[in-house]
């Protein structure tokens, strides 16, 4: 399977592999999204950007060469406004997994996330991937609406706690087949 390019564009954005000198900026952006943990029960990873840059955020038996952490920039200003992390080939070779997408809160509701993922989906179709997956916290209604609106609307499974309580959490894995 062909790898997603190190640099690619949409109408308003440039998406490119994270460089070492951007780790601090990306970590601050990741930490801005800490409110997500109210829905997924996770905790803030104070080394997230560095860990992704050096080791990757890998699935079981995953390899760093199939992992990408990319920054999303507004072309007009060259400002970093988002993060996209993905893994190619998990759990099957023809699967592309979207680990994490975050857009700076100052740029919410401008369609930037949709623009990035729509272009990514075009690449995946062109490169003959069989499916794309994303895992979403069940309590994260905005993300569920976002992903299902982009066609990741088949539930592959539920993971996490078996019953609902305020302090229990679960994820659904969404799939779009090509």
From TrEMBL:
InterPro entries: Acyl_CoA_acyltransferase (IPR016181), GNAT_dom (IPR000182). SUPFAM superfamilies: Acyl-CoA N-acyltransferases (Nat). Pfam families: Acetyltransf_1. PROSITE patterns: GNAT (PS51186). GO terms for molecular function: acyltransferase activity, transferring groups other than amino-acyl groups. Residues 13-178 form the N-acetyltransferase domain. PANTHER family: GNAT-FAMILY ACETYLTRANSFERASE (PTHR43415:SF3), SPERMIDINE N(1)-ACETYLTRANSFERASE (PTHR43415). This is N-acetyltransferase domain-containing protein. It comes from Guptibacillus hwajinpoensis.
């Amino acid at each position: 399977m062909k790898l997603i390019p190190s640099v690619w564009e949409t109408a308003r954005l440039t998406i490119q592999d994270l460089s070492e000198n951007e780790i601090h900026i990306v970590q601050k952006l990741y930490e801005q999204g800490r409110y997500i943990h109210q829905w997924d029960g996770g905790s803030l990873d104070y080394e997230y950007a560095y860990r992704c840059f050096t080791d990757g955020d890998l699935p079981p038996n995953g390899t760093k060469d199939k992992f990408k952490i990319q920054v999303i920039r507004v072309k007009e200003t060259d400002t970093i406004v988002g993060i996209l992390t993905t893994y190619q080939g998990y759990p099957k070779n023809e699967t592309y997994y979207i680990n994490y997408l975050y857009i700076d809160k100052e740029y919410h509701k401008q369609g930037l996330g949709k623009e990035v993922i729509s272009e990514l989906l075009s690449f995946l179709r062109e490169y003959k991937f069989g499916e794309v997956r994303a895992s979403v916290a069940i309590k994260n209604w905005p993300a569920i609406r976002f992903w299902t609106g982009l066609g990741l609307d088949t539930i592959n499974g539920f993971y996490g706690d078996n019953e609902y309580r305020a302090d229990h959490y679960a994820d659904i894995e969404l799939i779009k087949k090509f």
